[in-house]
Amino acid sequence: MAWKRIGVNETTETASTPLAQRVALITGGSRGIGKAIARRLAQLGAAVAICGRDAAKLRETADELRAAGTRVLARRADVTRADEIEALVSATEAELGPIAILVNNAGIGLFGPAHEKTEAEWDTLMNTNLKSVFLVCRSVVPRMIGRKAGDIINISSLAGKNTFAGGGVYCASKWALQGLSGCMAEDLRGYGIRVSTVCPGSVATEFSGRGPKDASKVLTAEDVAHAVAMVATQGGQSFVSEVHLRPVGKT
After folding, report:
1. Is 191 annotated as catalytic?
2. Of residues 170, 185, 224, 232, which has the active-site annotation?
3. Are 153 and 103 contacting, i.e. CB atoms less than 8 angstroms apart?
4. How would you classify the pairing of strands 23-27 and 47-52?
5. What class, spelled out in words, does domain 23-245 have in CATH?
6. Which of 21, 22, 177, 207 lies at 20 to 30 Å from 236 by C-alpha?
7. Are residues 210 and 166 in contact, defined by beta-carbon separation less than 8 angstroms?
8. Residue 199: which of 154, 244, 241 has the closest Cα?
């Protein structure tokens, strides 16, 4: 299946589905922010592949998307394992078509003084929040290079731009993700591939955060999905490299 990036002067199948004929892969796509992103990109016409480690949640989300008429692949996968990632990417392209949009969303939170954390906790967080992005990109990027197009959107955090007490390990993972994303953007832009980061502040999800959140002063998963959709539907000659997303009300 062939596809090309949509430019500002081009038409789509319908004005409401600018991502028609495109395939999006969203890691951690069965719940929270990932599910909201999958739903939004599907509403814009994309076929969607999602992965996660909770088989029941994957089935539930896939059923919801299919009920809305979306072509879906849902596959259980551990994004810290190269073999499972390669199987996921190969299955996605075989069933849905070439991956045009990759959203690296899978992530976990771990908070508290860095000196109180164990080596195992460090490894688990870094593998999930950082190594997984490296591994998934390593599988997807050569395919995008061959097609001379693609959008990679990494879900980072304002914790990748700021520091705070108790954020040592988590901030380290997100600062590293910012560096990885920026360097990849420079490596790949000559191939027509855009690498962007979306950096939300506090979001009201099941994500393990620093404590209870006032729903009136945090973002929703849909807010993050809206930002991702904006990046995915930008004009063919533009490059939104980084989005900072904050709630209107300050905590």
Report:
1. no
2. 170
3. yes
4. parallel
5. alpha beta
6. 177
7. yes
8. 244
